[in-house]
Structures are given as C-alpha cells and as structure tokens.
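User: Hello! My lab partner asked me to get a predicted holo structure for this protein. The small molecule is zinc ion, SMILES included with the sequence. Please write out the structure tokens.
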Amino acid sequence: MSSTDVSHETESEILLDEGDHDRFSHYARKADIVESAVTGKPIVALCGKVWVPDRNPDRFPLCPRCKELYEKKKSQESN
Ligand SMILES: [Zn+2]
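Assistant: Hello! Below are the structure tokens for the protein in complex with zinc ion.
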C-alpha cells in the first residue's frame, strides 16, 4: 500500500523533468525565463501552464495557445 505512494511520487517527478506530455515551447516573460535558467524553477507561461523552459526552445513546436494569446495581445497594442 505504501509502496504505491512512493512510486507515484517518483513518476510525477520524472514527468516534470520531461517537460510534461505535450512538449511545447511556451511564451513567458523574458525575465522569468532568464530566472528559471538560473534557478531551474518552473515558471508560468502566457497560457497559464507551469513549465520549465528548455535551453533549446527551437527543439519544440510553439504552444498554439501561447501563440494565440501573444498575437491577440500584440494586435491590441498596435491599435
Ligand atoms: Zn503555452
């Protein structure tokens, strides 16, 4: 019974390291990304997802939700 709890904890840790099941690059504030690169802590993306930015964001496709929100924000600012 108790061994199940331990294995579950380990599993979620691995998932966090892998950057979740959907491997996307997300938009976030540049200051947050820089800080995460130093501390290794997860940050909150534009879409609300908490993730750890990869050192090579080009490896992953851009999160569609982040892109949508970013472009919406950009078009509002230019108006
Ligand atoms: Zn996103």
